[in-house]
Design brief:
Length: 247
Amino acid sequence: MSQATYSQPDRRRPEPLWYQVEEAIRTIVKSGEWPTGSQIPAEDRLCIMFGVSRITLRHALRNLEEQGLLRREHGRGTFVRSAKLVAGTRELTSFTQEMGNLGLVVGSRLLDFGLTTADAAAAAALEIEEGEPVVRIRRLRLGNDAPIGIQTAQLPVARVPDFLEPGPPEGSLYEALSRRYGINPVEAREIYRVASVGAEDAALLDLPAGTPAFVVERITTDERGPFEFTVSVMRGDRYEIRSTLRS
């Protein structure tokens, strides 16, 4: 393996060694040197590569497994996961950031971008009157060119005037909102449920109609209140929820 794709941990840096190993492994995966589905080197080999103890290495591997980048199989070894977004305890980030953190190549296809009026669900979520104008952004989300989900975001026009000009934002929606309006998310509330995928969404997600999928409703707020209501339909085989329960 070429050392050009990663750097060994530096004990003079303030970051813990396990964190530096994490970032090094993430860099290797992003570079394609360890492609999706491939088995990564055994622990003893990794310890030599990174110059760390087995305890430090296992700490890094466990974190990357929890984040969905790696998959450990008992008796077989550790593998690079296929495109899968893992939901659980995490920072408030955009889809673009989450995908990047998992080492996946982020992709998006715009399905709809324009004005509409808030229905009862959107009005309640955004704390506006039903029928008020909202910007609607509907996108097919991809990870490593594979469809993961369909996200439909609604933003109250009163918070984002002239958002339709000059056109749909490229990249992260949150970055565009921060840059243009000073809107920065501070909290998001999510509700997860399972539902059957309709024919239109199924075709976009490359699934048979009626396949179960996760439906995620997300209300995101800044210091002034809710500014985004998003409904996502996520493929069940590429979207995973994990929780840690403590007494």
